[in-house]
Amino acid sequence: METLCKIRDVYRAIAEFEVQFTQMYDLSLNEGMLLCTLLNTPKLTSSEIAEALGLSASNTSKVIRSVEGKKLITRLIGKEDKRQMRFSLTAEGKNRISDIKNATFELSGLLQQVVSLV
Q1: Which helix or strand (DSSP H or E) is residue 20 part of?
Q2: Longest alpha-carbon distance in the chain
Q3: How far is CA 71 from CA 32, 63, 83, 87, 95, in A?
Q4: Residue 89 forms beta bridges with which residues?
Q5: pLDDT category, 117, cuts 50, 70, 90?
Q6: What three-state secondary structure class fits 89?
Q7: Number of domains in the chain
């Protein structure tokens, strides 16, 4: 039971962080993680993004559409197979993730402990 309570506390700390993150950057955590993923590995397919983020195909599609609507990523159509879509950061997306990576965040004590372990 103690483990479950600790997980609940971590989840709450992450939820609080997401509220702050959304207010600052107009992005959910999943959207921010998508930008970070594309910065580290550009030109990914939807299934590669889903795997990297640990999301279902359906949730990944929603996150992609949202970030694409914010003009932070763009679709690249495959040269050999026009059905193959890859996603890449736009200049605005690169600027946004750069701002995020250079930011200093105030983390709750618990979340700071968790992040320090990684």
Answers
A1: helix 2-25
A2: 54
A3: 13, 13, 21, 12, 12
A4: 73
A5: low
A6: strand
A7: 1
Domain that holds residue 45: 2-117
For residue 57, give every residue at least 6 positions away whose Cβ sits within 8 Å of its Cβ, in sequence order, or none: 46, 47, 50
35 close to 97: Cβ distance less than 8 angstroms = yes
From residue 109, give the alpha-carbon distance in Å to each of 3, 62, 77, 104.
Answer: 18, 32, 44, 15
Q: Residue 112 is part of a domain; what is its CATH number? A: 1.10.10.10
Phi, psi of 42 (to 5 degrees): -70, 160
Task: Indicate the pLDDT class of residue 113, thresholds 50, 70 and 90.
Answer: confident
* Beta bridge partners of residue 73, listed in sequence order: 89
Percent of the chain with pLDDT over 90: 65
Taking residues 58-86, report their average pLDDT: 92
Alpha carbons within 13 A on the beta-carbon side of 74 = 9
Beta-strand pair 73-77/85-89 = antiparallel
Global confidence as pTM: 0.86
Distances (CA, A) of 64 to 6, 14, 68: 31, 21, 6
> Would you state the pLDDT for residue 84?
84
